[in-house]
Every structure is written in C-alpha cells, then in structure tokens.
Design brief:
The chain is globular and about 40 Å long. The chain has a domain of about 40 residues. It is of the alpha+beta class. About 5% of the residues are buried.
C-alpha cells in the first residue's frame, strides 16, 4: 500500500477489520489503528484476495 505521503507500507491482511472510502481509503485494523492509503477499496480487496489465493496454493513445507 501507499500512504498519502508516498511512502510504501506492507499491511498484514489478517489484521484488517474494515476498508472504507471516505473519499480517502481508510484501513482499520483489529488493533484499532487506522491507515490511510492512496489505493482504492477495490484495489485493497483485490490485493488481499490475491495474497490469500497465493497462500492457499503454496506447497506445504516439509
């Protein structure tokens, strides 16, 4: 994700509670922390879905 100041940040998608566009995209974590990003709500959703697909298709570690 990209913060409004242009700095990139990685967010643990397991901690995302809600994503709202107000009009900025606000990600609220289960910890109560809020992160405002440049990406749209739909982009955040697509990135989370892509990550979860990637995790579920990964080979188990032996």
């Amino acid at each position: 994700m990209t913060r409004l100041n242009g700095k990139e940040v990685t967010i643990n998608c397991e901690l995302i509670e809600t994503v709202e566009e107000t009009p900025d995209t606000v990600i609220v974590l289960t910890t109560g922390k809020k992160i405002i990003v440049k990406e749209s709500r739909q982009t955040v959703k697509n990135l989370v879905k892509s990550y979860k697909r990637e995790c579920s298709s990964a080979d188990p570690v032996e």
